[in-house]
């Protein structure tokens, strides 16, 4: 059986200029990064601004196993299947982070015969967007420390610096560090920390900014610290936002690539859904809507994380409204939610499947609360039995949900034709889209709405630090209380406890910390044991990745 990378390396890619020509993009509107990658510049965005939008389809999922369950694969396969049935479709995805690529999951460009290519480039460095975000983030950190060193004119309290450094690798040793050690000329000693790049507020800002001017303003609005007297200090006070925007001037442009079947794909931005808002950039999504009749995009992890944030944050801020939602479910993930260990997921177990099916039901119910049509995509694995697949179809029928078996991993676009037809039909159904909470609710009321309506909690408990955080945010400016909520929590459970699988109810959601992302314009709520800097597992995926003398990469799947 061929690996993902072997399949990708055998793909017959078209020059990216050919893909661009099919989309009506002119040569001077395209910035090439080799033969198969390109960025689309602002000239095209301006030229197409008056075009009518196509349909927007969101792909999300039930709560996954630690290995992930094929949401990106389904998204890519659905886009290819749309082309198979004669629809003008484009895919809009997030960029992979090096953290999971070298950590647990390996590559994140789809799988099997439903991939975006060039797969190795996309997974490793792509067009350098994440490096630019890392550089811009760490420039601000350097300028904060330099300000302390050069006399601290703003009277920044080193104990109340909120902005952290980042790197795009899983490195638990950097969660808590001391900087400025050495001689007097080596800086002011203070405690600092690193987060993974995808958790950076710069990543969120890049993905939500509409233009360079919007980007600069948002960067300037980042709350970086407090003074000794408790006055807030923003990025603009350090005069850093102009230089940061200069580092990001190319990174803000959407990237154009293709699938194995030459369906166009925009891949841009990559915040994680468990520690950030989990969606690709607003600019890429809006561009895709102008380029095709159907835009298929995804949101990270389960619908309780990615879809919720896509709908309550991205759609709210960008004025977007999906026409349909695809909910990816797998036999494996439902058995995992039924208590089966990861190593035993390939064995038929109808009892565990029945126990875990409540997770699928919960996500169907939650998505319907937004007033959107839902289609369940049953992503088939080779170990699934007919009895197990029939059981999931029975659950969907009982819930009154449209469903289709997806075999895009094994068959490419041909394996998603039924799904594509169901999704096209869903896009024509009546919808009544609404957010889960109103802007004018208080911070606590918004958190409570998510906890009770989406997660199934009975109540919310706040640590003392979180209560202090909320009071500070509300005291800063009343406009901040109107910001949407971005909950950081485990992806493996509807709750904030990864061990509570299935459909837990009656639990208490514990809020540890609340952070203002004034530039991104949302409020981050940290729950449970979630970390903004993951660590590597005992046997990371990096063990299997290698490159030969000819530059051919192996083990990236």
Describe the 3D structure.
The protein has 557 residues and is of the alpha/beta class. Helices cover 35% and strands 20% of the residues. Strands 1, 2, 3, 4, 5, 6, 14, 15, 16, 17, 18 and 19 form a twelve-stranded mixed beta sheet that branches. The chain has a four-stranded mixed beta sheet with strand order 20-22-23-21. The chain has a three-stranded antiparallel beta sheet with strand order 7-12-13, with no helix packed on it. Strand 24 and strand 25 form a beta hairpin. Helix 4 crosses helix 17 (417-427) and helix 13 packs across helix 14 (350-368).
Overall pLDDT metric: 95
> Percent of residues in beta strands?
15-25%
How many helices? 19
How helical, in percent, are the residues?
25-40%
Radius of gyration: 23 Å
SS-based structural class?
alpha/beta
So what's the overall shape? globular
Distance between the termini: 13 Å
Largest sheet: 12 strands, mixed
Record keyword descriptors for this entry.
35% helix; globular; single chain; 557 residues; twelve-stranded mixed beta sheet; 20% strand; alpha/beta; four-stranded mixed beta sheet
Brief sketch in words of this structure:
The protein is of the alpha/beta class and about 550 residues long. The strands form 6 sheets. Strands 1, 2, 3, 4, 5, 6, 14, 15, 16, 17, 18 and 19 form a 12-stranded mixed beta sheet that branches. It has a 4-stranded mixed beta sheet with strand order 20-22-23-21. It has a 3-stranded antiparallel beta sheet with strand order 7-12-13, with no helix packed on it.
């Amino acid at each position: 059986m061929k690996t993902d990378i072997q399949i990708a390396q055998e793909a017959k890619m078209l020059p990216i200029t050919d893909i661009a020509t099919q989309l009506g993009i002119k040569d001077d509107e395209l910035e090439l990064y080799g033969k198969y990658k390109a960025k689309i510049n602002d000239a095209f965005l301006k030229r197409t601004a008056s075009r009518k939008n196509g349909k927007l389809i969101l792909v999300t999922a039930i709560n996954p196993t630690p290995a992930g369950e094929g949401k990106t694969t389904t998204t890519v396969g659905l886009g290819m299947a749309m082309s198979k049935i004669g629809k003008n479709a484009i895919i809009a995805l997030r960029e992979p982070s090096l953290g999971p690529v070298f950590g647990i999951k390996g590559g994140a460009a789809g799988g099997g015969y439903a991939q975006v290519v060039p797969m190795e480039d996309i997974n490793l460095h792509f067009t350098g967007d994440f490096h630019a975000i890392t550089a811009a983030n760490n420039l601000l950190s350097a300028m904060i420390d330099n300000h302390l060193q050069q006399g601290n004119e703003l009277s920044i309290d080193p104990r109340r610096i909120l902005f952290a450094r980042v790197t795009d690798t899983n490195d638990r040793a950097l969660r808590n560090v001391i900087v400025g050690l050495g001689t007097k000329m080596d800086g002011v000693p203070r405690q600092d920390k690193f987060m993974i790049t995808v958790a950076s507020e710069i990543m969120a800002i890049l993905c939500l900014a509409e233009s360079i001017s919007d980007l600069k303003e948002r960067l300037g609005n980042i709350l970086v610290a407090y003074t000794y007297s408790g006055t807030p200090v923003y990025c603009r006070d350090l005069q850093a936002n102009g230089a940061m925007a200069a580092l990001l001037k190319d990174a803000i442009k959407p990237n154009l690539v293709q699938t194995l079947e030459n369906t166009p794909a925009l891949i841009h931005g990559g915040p994680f859904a468990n520690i950030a808002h989990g969606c690709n950039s607003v600019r890429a999504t809006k561009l895709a809507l102008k380029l095709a009749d159907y835009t298929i995009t995804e949101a990270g992890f389960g619908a309780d994380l990615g879809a919720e944030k896509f709908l309550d944050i991205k759609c709210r801020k960008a004025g977007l409204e999906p026409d349909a939602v695809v909910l990816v479910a797998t036999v494996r993930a439902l058995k995992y939610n039924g208590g089966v260990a990861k190593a035993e997921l390939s064995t038929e177990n109808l009892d565990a499947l029945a126990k875990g099916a409540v997770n699928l039901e919960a996500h169907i119910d939650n998505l319907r609360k937004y007033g959107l049509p839902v289609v369940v995509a049953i992503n088939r694995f080779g170990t699934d039995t007919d009895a197990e697949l029939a059981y999931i179809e029975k659950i969907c029928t009982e819930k009154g949900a449209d469903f289709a078996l997806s075999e895009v991993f094994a068959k490419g676009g041909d394996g998603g034709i039924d799904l594509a037809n169901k999704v096209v039909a869903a896009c024509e159904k009546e919808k009544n889209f609404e957010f889960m909470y109103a802007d004018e609710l208080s911070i606590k009321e918004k958190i409570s709405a998510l906890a009770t309506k989406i997660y199934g909690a009975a109540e919310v408990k706040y640590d003392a630090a979180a209560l202090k955080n909320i009071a500070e945010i509300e005291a800063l400016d009343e406009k901040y209380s109107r910001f949407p909520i971005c909950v950081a929590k485990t992806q493996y459970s509807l709750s904030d406890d990864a061990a509570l699988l299935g459909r837990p109810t009656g639990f208490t959601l514990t809020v540890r910390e609340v952070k203002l992302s004034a530039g991104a314009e949302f409020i981050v709520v940290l729950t449970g044991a979630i970390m903004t800097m993951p660590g590597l597992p005992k046997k990371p995926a990096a063990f299997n990745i290698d490159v030969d003398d000819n530059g051919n990469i192996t083990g990236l799947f």
